[in-house]
Design brief:
Structural class: alpha+beta
Order of helices and strands: HEEEEEEEEEEEEEEEEEEEEEHH
Strand order of the largest sheet: 6-7-8-10-14-13-12-11
Shape: globular
Helix content: 10-25%
Mean pLDDT: 80
Distance between the termini: 6 Å
Number of helices: 3
Largest sheet: 8 strands, mixed
Number of strands: 21
Length: 357
Amino acid sequence: MAGMRTALALLVAAVLGLGPTVPATAGTVVPRDPGNGGPDHPRGGEGPEGSEVAFEFQDPRISESSGLAPSLLHEGVWWTHNDSGEHEPHVYAVDEEGQTLATVRLEVELRDWEAISVAEGPEGSPAIFVGDIGDNFGGGWPNIRVYRFDEPETLNDATINPTVLTFTYEDGGRDAESMMIDPRDGRLYIASKEFSGGLYAAPEEIDPEGENVLERIDSAPLFATDAAFHPDGTRYAIRTYWGVSIYDSTDGVPGTSMGAFDLPEMEQGESVAFTPDGDELRAGTEGPHSPVWKVPLPDEYLGEERGESSPDTEDEEAADDLEVDKDEGGSGFGLILGGVAVTVVVIGGIVLLARKS
């Protein structure tokens, strides 16, 4: 199964990697360069202008940082945790120099922690959500779990028994590394890490005592590794090993695609989060003393009030350009349509193979 998915992923990259990433739908994003992102190659590119390392984790215990989220109570503080493996069930608060300020031990099993979010909890105060949502057995776990606890008002080492929230997928088990919570209504979403990935929504009201069914509401980018909402909820990001897709969720989720761009090259890109002001992303990778990158959002992803142009304006301009080509003889327009047709046929065949595998 894994070998088949890898081969299919490379074929998609080879087909669609001939040109820039096409954000035509709110689902699929592929790397511009199919040579990047293989199991033995660095992943990503240069990133937007101004991208640079914000800090490196200084704590040797943080050797496989897999999730990242900004504090809602403490300015300049970020929460992270390790992936599965030989680690303790710890959540770490770090400052913008990468120094650990506090370690919170959760009295739970560390099965495959993959994501973390900080959002308003059911009591109206900030809460930390840790996603035990990974599944290296390709959907073998009977359920997945999210651990919720109040964000500490003081940053001291502590041991906590969190609330355990249990979820199942409506269409069978999935591997996932991406979890995000809408700051407007507290609804939780998970993007599966697959060739034909999906975006799943939790129930509006989560039952802390029973199993909550995750409903598939849209497709998701190829092999998503993390996701995060903008602080005001009007946009969200889903990252992969290679890059990040931004979606307009002003009118709700799943919303519409605003586009995609490369992230800085990382050995194994695992995390993404918006900064509290919403103007930048932070993107992390695994490894001892791993860096967390500062990634400024290009103007077109900042919203109409702050960016240079809206996606609707850009779409209208692109449509006008295509109409001009068509009126002037149609040769360029025909090539574009031909390329799109070939791509659709190839992807259709690949999806069928993926389903059969």
